[in-house]
UniProtKB/TrEMBL annotation:
This is DUF861 domain-containing protein. It holds the Pfam family Cupin_3. Residues 59-96 form the (S)-ureidoglycine aminohydrolase cupin domain. It comes from the Bacteria. Gene3D superfamilies: Jelly Rolls. Coiled coil: none annotated. Residues 7-22 have a biased composition (Basic and acidic residues). It comes from Arthrobacter oryzae. Residues 1-23 are annotated as: Disordered.
């Protein structure tokens, strides 16, 4: 294993678009796993723009990430809900829906749940 590794989300190794042009996921792959930056545009909702790709009833990814900008509401299958915004660190268990709040893009860096996210 090299002592130093440098990768950039500005030059991702993979880009996965969301349905209807409502954003994208950019990924770099590290030995420890994938790290992604997702840009969710206003009007984005998991159940409308990723569910057709994932083909599951709710998001089954387990997320650990940091909110750079914008706001998002997440609702678990059991009804628990929370809003996230800039500067928030989040963990989310599998089994949730989520959507962008307001008219600003929501940008999230995730180092746990994006390896298979929005992957057909």
């Amino acid at each position: 294993m090299p002592g130093l590794v440098r990768k950039s989300l500005d030059s991702p190794e993979e880009t996965r678009p969301f349905e209807d042009g409502k954003g994208q996921l950019q990924l770099v792959n590290l030995e420890e796993g994938a790290v992604g930056r997702a840009t969710f545009l206003p009007g984005w909702r998991w159940s409308e723009h990723v569910k057709p790709i994932a083909k599951t009833e709710s998001c089954q990814a387990s997320h650990m990430g940091y909110f750079v900008s914008g706001r998002m509401k997440v609702v678990m299958d059991d009804g628990e809900e929370m809003e996230y915004g800039p500067g928030d660190f989040a963990t989310m268990a599998p089994g949730h829906d989520a959507w962008v709040l307001g008219d600003e893009a929501c940008v999230v860096i995730d180092w746990q749940g994006f390896a298979d996210y929005a992957k057909p």
